């Protein structure tokens, strides 16, 4: 039987390899449990000084098994399976974001959705020329979760808002330029890097940083993505710093009148937003705005609430999206979203249906929200640990 | 307890151009070698703080000591056996080393070919060496894996074949790096080592 997650020991390094290459290492429930138990063991193993995440094949991890999730969410009898999967996934995301050992993720390939959940919260995130990242959930009528609403708003500017709403991707060096990755290292150097990490003599964050600095490919003068240029950043900030979708759309419409690349970008972005589920867009925007103020644990609790609504059919768009885009592999037709336009989705309704448990909302009656088992102290301990280690001066006393 | 420090380069960071770039020398010295020194000190500090009978813990530290200690030794030797291309040290002058090379390999070119061949053939990361067999007094080509130091022979010349030594200049074309490095080889230092080892 195929081992879905292969654990390896090399010196002081503990390496997990996602091994489902024909499904681009998409996460299923067994993999979530394997990862959790493996990491629990490593995080408390004395001889382990660094944890490394990798994936076999051309993806690190392309996401979760959405078809199975959608199927399970259809009926009240099987719904708990979908909720259970999401609960365990979020708990894993939290655990990975609060490891006491340095955690290095080699995003050496497609890293999307659930795959971002495994990597975003790591202190060391390596992009190579093969990396492609995205949070494409709004394409399938869902919203970006897995702690994205904690991580993405903390990047510089509105790149996070752009990524969650459009589902657009970033590739190669651009992943580093926008801060999604902490380092950019060519794929062929990664095995030498792991060799080096294997010889760390203690679980030191600054020790890992030192090693990574020797492999990171230094900045070139030209930005690799339009959005990293001055003009690109301006347009991005102008359009995506609003708190309401309607304002974002209005700014983009105005920007389409700009010359050259700026106008073209605005047109493409509007076209992308038009294809997305209107409900999902509003949920995603509200989530990322709220997440900026939340700790990782608080953010995941918020997401569990919104996700529970989705898995309980509060919006039919998740099933529609999975059916059209994933099952039928149709990315050209606009799925039959319901409601079909932004103006038919009142903001207040989005808040009450997905974020609060107010009276008269769909939530009050039929949505059970699983309680996440998150030890909030882990986050504080980890923050203090990192701060102590990374601010310590070079050399020893 | 000894505290190891990063030795200064005997030349400027750009002195080995165009054969090895300033960028590589800077990263190689300030990052990679410095990391070995830092980690070696850390490993030794950990070792010193262990109880005398804690054998298990001592064994665990051995890998870190071997790797970082070897890395420190190897790189310290390496900087010294390089020299700017225009300096007189980069020529193999007439003398005992030149005689020994001709005797054991036939010619300088033949020796270079053999060292480069063995070094390029190393799988993974490691070092290529021209060493002196102290029993037979013959010059021989040796390789060591990872950061293992050369212990079986006296070190005459070392070549770092870890990717970080050449990647930024030569990408994955190792052989170009190996051809280039002989233009900046410090034969004077090599001869001094040879004489000392006889």
Q: Tell me the Rg of chain A in angstroms.
A: 21 Å
The total of helices of chain B stands at 7
Beta-strand residue fraction of chain B:
5-15%
**Count of distinct structural domains of chain B:** 1
CATH level-3 fold name of chain B: minor pseudopilin epsh fold
CATH top-level class of chain B: Alpha Beta
| Major sheet characteristics of chain B | 3 strands, antiparallel
InterPro entries (chain B): Fe/Mn_Superoxide_Dismutase, Mn/Fe_SOD, Mn/Fe_SOD_BS, Mn/Fe_SOD_C, Mn/Fe_SOD_N, Mn/Fe_SOD_N_sf, SOD_C_sf
Organism (chain B): Calocera viscosa (strain TUFC12733)
Enzyme class (chain B): oxidoreductase
Catalytic activity (chain B): 2 superoxide + 2 H(+) = H2O2 + O2
Tell me about this structure.
Chain B: Belongs to the iron/manganese superoxide dismutase family. Chain B: GO terms for molecular function: manganese ion binding; superoxide dismutase activity. Chain B: Mn(2+) binds at residues 28, 75, 160, 164. The complex is a heterodimer of chains A (397) and B (198). Chain A has 397 residues and is of the alpha/beta class. Chain A has a single domain (5-396), classed as Alpha-Beta Complex (2-enoyl-CoA Hydratase, Chain A, domain 1). Chain A is built from 18 helices and ten strands. In chain A, the strands form two sheets. Chain A has a six-stranded mixed β-sheet with strand order 1-2-3-5-7-10, with helices on both faces. Chain A has a four-stranded mixed β-sheet with strand order 4-6-8-9. In chain A, a hairpin with a 2-residue loop joins strand 1 and strand 2 (13-18). Chain A is globular. The relative contact order of chain A is 0.12. The model of chain A is unreliable at 393-397 (pLDDT under 50). Chain B has 198 residues and is mostly helical. Chain B has one domain: Iron/manganese superoxide dismutase, C-terminal domain (minor pseudopilin epsh fold). Chain B has a three-stranded antiparallel β-sheet with strand order 2-1-3, with helices on both faces. In chain B, helix 1 (22-48) runs antiparallel to helix 2 (55-80). The longest helix of chain B is centred in the first third of the chain and has 27 residues, at 22-48. Chain B is globular. The mean pLDDT of chain B is 94. The interface between A and B is medium-sized, with 25 and 31 residues.
């Amino acid at each position: 039987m195929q081992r879905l997650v292969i654990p390896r020991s090399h010196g002081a390094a503990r390496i997990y390899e996602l091994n489902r290459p024909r499904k681009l290492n998409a996460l299923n429930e067994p993999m979530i449990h394997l990862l959790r138990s493996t990491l629990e063991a490593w995080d408390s193993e004395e001889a382990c000084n660094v944890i490394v995440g990798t994936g076999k094949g051309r993806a690190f991890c392309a996401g979760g098994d959405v078809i199975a999730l959608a199927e399970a969410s259809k009926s009240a009898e099987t719904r708990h399976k979908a909720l259970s999967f999401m609960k365990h996934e979020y708990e894993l995301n939290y655990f990975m974001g609060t490891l006491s050992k340095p955690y290095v993720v080699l995003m050496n390939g497609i890293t999307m959705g659930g795959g971002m959940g495994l990597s975003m919260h790591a202190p060391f995130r390596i992009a190579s020329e093969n990396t492609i990242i995205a949070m494409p959930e709004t394409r399938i009528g869902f919203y970006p979760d897995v702690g994205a609403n904690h991580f993405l708003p903390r990047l510089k500017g509105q790149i996070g808002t752009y990524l969650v709403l459009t589902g657009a991707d970033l590739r190669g060096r651009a992943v580093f330029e926008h801060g999604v990755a902490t380092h950019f290292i060519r794929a062929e150097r990664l095995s030498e890097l792991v060799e080096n990490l294997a010889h760390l003599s203690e679980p030191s964050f600054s020790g890992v940083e030192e090693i990574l600095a020797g492999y990171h490919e230094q900045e070139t003068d030209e930005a690799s993505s339009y959005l990293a240029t001055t003009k690109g950043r301006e347009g991005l900030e102008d359009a995506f710093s609003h708190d309401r979708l309607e304002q974002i759309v209005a700014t983009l419409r105005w920007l389409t009148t700009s010359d050259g690349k700026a106008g073209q970008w605005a047109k493409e972005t509007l076209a992308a937003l038009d294809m997305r589920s209107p409900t999902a867009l509003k949920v995603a925007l509200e989530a990322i705005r709220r997440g900026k103020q939340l700790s990782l644990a608080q953010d995941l609790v918020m997401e569990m609430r919104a996700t529970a609504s989705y898995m309980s059919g509060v919006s039919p768009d998740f099933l529609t999206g999975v059916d059209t885009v994933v099952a039928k592999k149709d990315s050209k037709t606009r799925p039959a979203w319901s409601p079909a336009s932004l103006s038919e989705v009142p903001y207040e309704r989005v808040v009450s249906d997905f974020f609060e448990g107010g009276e008269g909302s769909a939530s009050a009656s039929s949505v059970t929200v699983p309680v996440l088992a998150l030890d909030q102290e882990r986050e504080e301990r980890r923050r203090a640990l990192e701060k102590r280690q990374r601010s310590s001066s070079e050399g020893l006393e | 307890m000894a505290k190891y420090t990063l030795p200064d380069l005997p030349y400027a960071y750009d002195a080995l151009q165009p054969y090895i770039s300033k960028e590589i020398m800077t990263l190689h010295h300030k990052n990679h070698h410095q990391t070995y020194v830092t980690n070696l000190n850390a490993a030794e500090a950990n070792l010193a703080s262990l109880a005398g009978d804690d054998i298990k813990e001592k064994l665990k530290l051995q890998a870190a000591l071997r790797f970082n200690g070897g890395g420190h030794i190897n790189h310290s030797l390496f900087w010294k056996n390089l020299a700017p291309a225009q300096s007189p040290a980069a020529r193999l002058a007439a003398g005992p080393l030149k005689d020994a090379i001709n005797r054991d390999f036939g010619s300088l070119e033949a020796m270079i070919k053999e060292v480069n061949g063995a070094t390029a053939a190393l799988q993974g990361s490691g070092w290529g060496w021209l060493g002196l067999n102290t029993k037979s007094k013959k010059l021989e080509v040796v390789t060591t894996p990872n950061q293992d130091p050369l212990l079986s022979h006296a070190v005459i010349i070392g070549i770092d074949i870890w990717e970080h030594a050449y990647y930024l200049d030569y990408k994955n074309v190792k052989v170009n790096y190996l051809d280039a490095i002989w233009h900046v080889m410090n034969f004077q230092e090599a001869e001094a080592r040879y004489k000392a080892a006889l």
